[in-house]
Please model this.
Amino acid sequence: MKIKTGVLLAVAVLAVAFLPLPDFWITQLNYIGLYSLTGLGLVLLTGVAGLTSFGQAAFVGIGAYATAWLTLNLDMSPWLTLFIGLAITALSALVVGGITLRMSGHYLPLATIAWGLSLYYLMGNLDALGKYDGLLGVPGLQLLGWDVGQGRGFFVLTWAILLLAAAALLMLLDSRPGRAMRSLKNGTQMAEAMGVHTLRYKIVIFVIAALLASVSGWLFAHFQRSVNPSPFGLKMGIEYLFMTVVGGVGHVWGAITGAFLTKLLEDKLQVLLPQLIGTSGSYEIIVFGIVLVLMLKFLPDGLWSMVERYLPHPPRTRHWDAAAPLAERSKPQAGELVLDVQNIRKEFGGLVAVNDISFQIQAGQIVGLIGPNGAGKSTTFNLITGVLSLTRGHVLFRDQEVAGLRSREIAQQGMSRTFQHVKMIPDMTVLENVALGGHLRGHKDVLSAMTGTNREEEKQLFKEAERQLQRIGMGEHLNELAGNLAMGPQRLMEIARALCSDPALLLLDEPAAGLRHKEKKALAAVLRQLQSEGMSILLVEHDMDLVMDVCDHLVVMEFGTLLTQGTPAEIQQSPAVRAAYLGTEH
Ligand code: ADP
Ligand code: MG
Model:
């Protein structure tokens, strides 16, 4: 969205305060604004990074209780307590996130439930916080003599904060750190291989989400003029997640859509259901549960995704022509030893997947690693790139030991790879996916992205991404969604992404798998061209025609061991290789 459109939209929203609406509706909008603020955090957490938290209400509680206690007991200004509350929130989010985000699978949601519950009981049992009665008489908010503590004033304040936060998140998501965050959703392997410190980004996301919740809590405390534990319990934690999922957890505007719907539905149901059933009670929860199940089944991306479909998606303007090129690393001279693999070994329990393999790659060479299925090629690949840890052995990359380093550290040294099964971010454009490969060549981080001071570097990254796409013949597909590409272009895109990191060694795991004959020819041409530009390549490949065609040197594996190595002509003549392939190939 253009800045001008955004500002106009924001002014239009805030102008609602001056419409002759009944006060009831303004109050509703105030609650919707408060819920949306917390929902924004969940968009980042759940929608973007795939992390589920039921504990957001607890962070709302920290913001609310911090300001309530400090304004009541120490007579501080709410504008000061906001920041103290944020500091406490950030600290607790760092601790909770630092512990829980290392866990995988279902442990994170469970841990956030535990966190939500324990904070609820803490709030309810501390004398200083008034136990379950809470704290009463919290002052309202004043801004430059204007009463923004309730009604229309509060609406303008809350929605201004909400829209600012939404704009900051939108800018963040469309940036270097944002692309890194969006790469977290489907496992961390690809992101780490692109040099992304995935745990660090998860923690940053967790903290941002907690801070948004905390601001909402601060506003809430001064709006209600009192705090007690019930709005910050687990039930509300679940409701926040419910709202955001229904609205569309994958999109910033989904949070607001969800808050709108839930609030309106809740009010209607609270009146309607007791009339229907004849007794009073929170029956709306049951309806919410049913709606959630139906939504997850029929519209898993939430309601906003339906609106999104009809919105225009103009291609990114090519504004980066004048940008300075990114710095390049010094490359090895032709013939220099780039990779020296020495007796590497990997045991999976009793299975020796890679049995003391050694080989070398000189600068400018294309070396093929071949062998029947299960020979240990991908494992060898993962050992070299740091995805798996070695049982023993050494890997020297440009004379530096890289064995034992993490894959993002090895990426930093100048090795870049593709995956046997394409790993990409399907809802990002080809250009953005490739720009992720340049992650380590940029430095602007979250705050810079949120405030828009990263513009120049973004241009540099996109310029580089476009250059790499043109290099492999995909200059026509910049603005296509990666998920819409056929297999061939997807694999080429992965190569461009790897190239975008400015590697000294390129590792390709079965780049021709699933390609048609013509696409394979095109791939061979790309590989030869890269070689002519001085690139060194390690190629794992099943397609013998391609391998024999482009490789200078072949390493043949069978059952984890090195069968033989030599030039393609030598390998073709080798009786041992023929024997190995008989019965497994053709
Ligand atoms: P290739 O890529 O040559 O087809 P792989 O390197 O994928 O072969 O696998 C080599 C052997 O190691 C196979 O027998 C495979 O089952 C085994 N293997 C691979 N990864 C693992 C793992 N994570 N745990 C246990 N065994 C594995
Ligand atoms: Mg493999």
